[in-house]
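Quick one: structure for this chain?
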Amino acid sequence: MASKVSLLVAAVIVAAACLLGTAEAKLGRLFVTGVVPCSTGSLIDIATSPAFPNADVELRCAGKVVAGATTNINGSFTMEADLTSALAAFIGRCSLVVDTPLIKCDAQLPPVGKLVSYLQGPLTRLLGGIFHLFPAGFSFHGR
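Got it. Here's what it folds into:
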């Protein structure tokens, strides 16, 4: 009897692992693209602010870094994350964080602080399970 119970438990564990693996594979990929401004303020307008080249941008979900990128000379970035690690993006628990000091793009800006933005974009699944989000607007947070 004990061997039948052990065999049943093992079968349930294997089946659950297979189902979880299939569920993760179906979630898809998350792409985040945007431009980082070299400015202070709240909800900084990227159309009227200079770009921040060579800034490190992190996608943080529930306090954990799940993806990162460095801006190009135009302040643009693109990053990719597996939705299994960035699922919190769809419930508002993810944000983009730039810890690179603003003084690196403009010597007259504060040497400490960070830029933070929540994410926005369509919640519908695109072709092939790819989701595309972008910054809702960066704001400066002094430390």
